[in-house]
Design goal:
By secondary structure, the chain is α/β, with parallel strands linked by helices. About 45% of the residues lie in helices and about 15% in strands. The strands form 2 sheets. It has a 5-stranded parallel sheet with strand order 7-6-5-8-9. A 4-stranded parallel sheet has the order 2-1-3-4, with helices on both faces. It is globular.
Length: about 300
């Protein structure tokens, strides 16, 4: 791998190696064993979309790896404000050892990776969120002891999380059911790609509008916000449409008794999930949030070492 843009671009073996490295780095950190794998390296972090977990986990992770994280907000650079991505990519390649970018347009990330001579990490676009899913897979493995053969259910908007979860599950042989309302379904090309990946690992992908059908026998239940950044004008309509897709105690009870609940955060309690689910013993959201640090360290170490 030169870049980490989409889990669909990775082989099953590459995903497995990243997860094993994340487990190793996490254990070393917990045991006070330093791992300055990226000593002397610099990561440029471009943020067109703000994020608590993304900024903190990448900055802390890069520091723990011995490198230097450089925060670049949209007001700090000329990307998309007159200077071409080609020029920006070539200039940053002369200064940095890697680029992390969190932005709106997925094409911007593809173009940045195309023109940059250094690794580019996709920390979120409107289409995909692969770093989050690496943390999700790590969390699932920690709590279930395996990935292949498990069933994940995603209920909500057919957004970047739904897309990357399909890719991730398909690569590791995990079944996934995605329940979204009409008009908010997943990208057809992503679904097709994920189903092609699933054929190679034996995973089963189900797309439905029925959350009750989707959640049956689930080992992992996943939710995300109904109103993402940039969709604020649609808030009232989205709340109305997604209300039947709320993960509450009644719906969650239709999953397996030992099912765990995941959410990429931030969560809006009382909307996509009720407090009696997100604060229950079944919830692993903070393990999941912590694992952003370890999974992203594995990605950075693999690409930039």
């Amino acid at each position: 791998m030169k870049d980490f843009i989409s889990i669909h671009d990775c082989s099953t073996e590459e995903i497995d190696k990243l997860l094993k490295l994340a487990i190793k780095l996490k254990a070393e950190l917990k045991n006070g064993i330093p791992h300055p794998i990226l000593k002397g390296k610099t990561l440029g972090m471009i943020f067109s979309k703000s994020s608590t977990r993304t900024r903190v986990s990448f900055e802390v992770g890069m520091t723990q790896l011995g490198g230097y994280p450089l925060f670049l907000s949209s007001s700090d650079i000329q990307l998309g404000r007159g200077e071409t991505i080609y020029d920006t990519a070539n200039v940053l390649s002369r200064y940095l050892d890697g680029i992390m970018i969190r932005t709106f347009s997925h094409q911007d990330v593809l173009d940045l990776a195309k023109y940059a001579d250094i690794p580019v990490i996709n920390a979120l676009t409107d289409l995909l969120h692969p770093c989050q899913v690496m943390a999700d897979l790590l969390t699932a493995y920690e709590h279930k002891g395996r990935l292949k053969g498990l069933k994940m259910t995603y209920i909500g908007d057919g957004n970047n999380m739904a897309h990357s979860l399909m890719y991730g599950c398909a690569k590791v042989g995990m079944d996934i059911s995605v329940a979204t309302p009409a008009g908010y379904t997943c990208d057809e090309e992503v679904v097709s790609n994920a189903k092609d990946d699933a054929k190679k690992t034996g995973a089963n992908i189900v797309i439905t509008q029925d959350p009750v059908e989707a959640i049956k026998d689930a080992d992992i239940v996943y939710s995300d916000t109904w109103v993402s950044m940039g969709q604020e004008e649609e808030k009232a309509e989205r709340i109305r449409v997604f209300k039947p897709y709320q993960i509450n105690r009644e719906l969650f009870g239709k999953a397996k008794p030992d099912a765990v609940f995941m959410h990429c955060l931030p969560a809006y309690r009382g909307f996509e999930v009720t407090e009696d689910v997100i604060d229950s013993p079944n919830s692993v959201i903070f393990d999941e949030a912590e694992n952003r640090l370890h999974a992203q360290k594995a990605v950075m170490a693999t690409l930039m070492a």
